[in-house]
Specification:
The protein has one domain: FAD/NAD(P)-binding domain (3-Layer(bba) Sandwich). Helix content is 25%, strand content 30%. The protein is built from eight helices and 20 strands. Helix 1 packs parallel to helix 3 and helix 4 packs antiparallel against helix 5. The radius of gyration is 20 Å and the shape is globular.
């Protein structure tokens, strides 16, 4: 199965800033339509918040927990990932801990995860793209009919695209374009982003809990899951725990060494144990809850556009749909 898009005769030069799912979705569709696309990512890998941390003998999905597929277009993309082995359905029952009581969560849409890692769907999209890692875009300037990109690592780039697409969180987009595109100020004002403290806990033995994955509605945690319960996961026993959104946001600038003991204590309080090893990660822009959902924003006169989950629902599916819809809008202008 393949996603078929119309071909573009004139080869436009496009820079996509950000190699999360929204950026890769957009870049992939544009490249398939015939545009010349280059992706710039500040990190050493792709996938953004669909991330997996790897240690000595263990691995852990410490970003997106799982994803669902409701829109037909995303269902088509998911079918490709399933066929290619980049994703699988996650059948593990999910519980709820509330009022110091465990119970089963209500049935919902099928849940999916990347396989063998959460990053796999993003790698599937990126394999046919020109992705530049360790390229932190610090400044964007508009020159006649083209853009100039400055990076922290390499200075001014030789590449001069006539389109720039920002597939980054709203606060980062605002810093880069507020003097160029007034629309970003209004978009940012409508966006709601919150951080999340996340911990990965490695154990020397299997931890017996009522559920291998659960929403936590008491205290400072919001989620706990046994990473090994997901399909094709191997290695030592690892659990991931996420801090509650408001608590995380209130503590977002705290010292990680003060956050870690609090989260471990909260995990022990719901029946967990102290880990043999742990790692902590701060997601400064972990979740988005847009007040309205335009899917994307596109200024075709200037050749600048924005996509991301912060513009469409705040979920994995929303990120992919935002990038895909933006690509179709740009294609329609050519």
């Amino acid at each position: 199965m393949a996603l078929i898009l119309p071909r573009i005769e004139e080869k436009s030069q496009v820079a996509v800033i950000g190699a999360g799912l929204a950026g890769l979705s957009c870049a992939s569709a544009l490249a398939q339509a015939g545009m010349q696309v280059q992706v710039f990512e500040k990190s050493r890998g792709v996938a953004g918040r669909m991330s997996t941390r790897k240690g000595d003998g263990w691995q852990c999905d410490h970003g997106a927990r799982y994803f669902t597929a409701r829109d037909p277009a995303f269902q088509n993309q998911l079918a490709i990932w399933l066929e290619q082995g980049a994703a699988s359905q996650w059948h593990t029952p999910i519980g709820v801990y509330e009022n110091q009581t465990w119970q089963s969560s209500k049935p919902s849409d099928p849940r999916y995860v990347g396989t063998p890692w959460m990053t796999s769907p993003a790698h599937h999209l990126a394999k046919s793209l020109d992705v530049h890692h360790s390229h932190t875009i610090t400044q964007i300037n508009r020159a006649p009919h083209q853009w100039q990109l400055h990076t922290a690592e390499h200075g001014l780039l030789e590449y001069k695209p006539n389109w720039v697409i920002l597939a980054v969180p709203a606060p980062q987009a605002l810093l880069l374009t507020q003097k160029i595109d007034p629309a970003i100020t209004a978009l940012y004002g409508q966006a709601k982003t919150e951080g999340c403290w996340t911990m990965m806990l490695r154990f020397n033995e299997v931890i017996a809990m009522p559920f291998e994955a659960a929403f936590i509605n008491d205290g400072i945690l919001s989620w706990a899951a046994r990473n090994n319960a997901k399909p094709e996961r191997t290695g030592e026993e690892v659990w991931v725990i996420h801090g509650q959104s408001q608590w995380s946001q209130d503590q977002i600038d705290a010292d990680p060494q003060t956050i870690a003991p609090q989260m471990i204590a909260a995990f022990i309080a719901i029946g967990g144990k102290a880990p043999a090893e742990c790692a902590i990660h701060r997601w400064r822009y972990a979740s988005s809850d847009p007040a309205y959902q335009p899917r994307f924003h596109c200024n075709s006169e200037q050749g600048i556009a924005y996509c991301g989950d912060w513009l469409h629902g705040g979920r994995v599916e929303g990120a992919w749909l935002s990038g895909h819809a933006l690509a179709n809008a740009i294609i329609a202008t050519h």
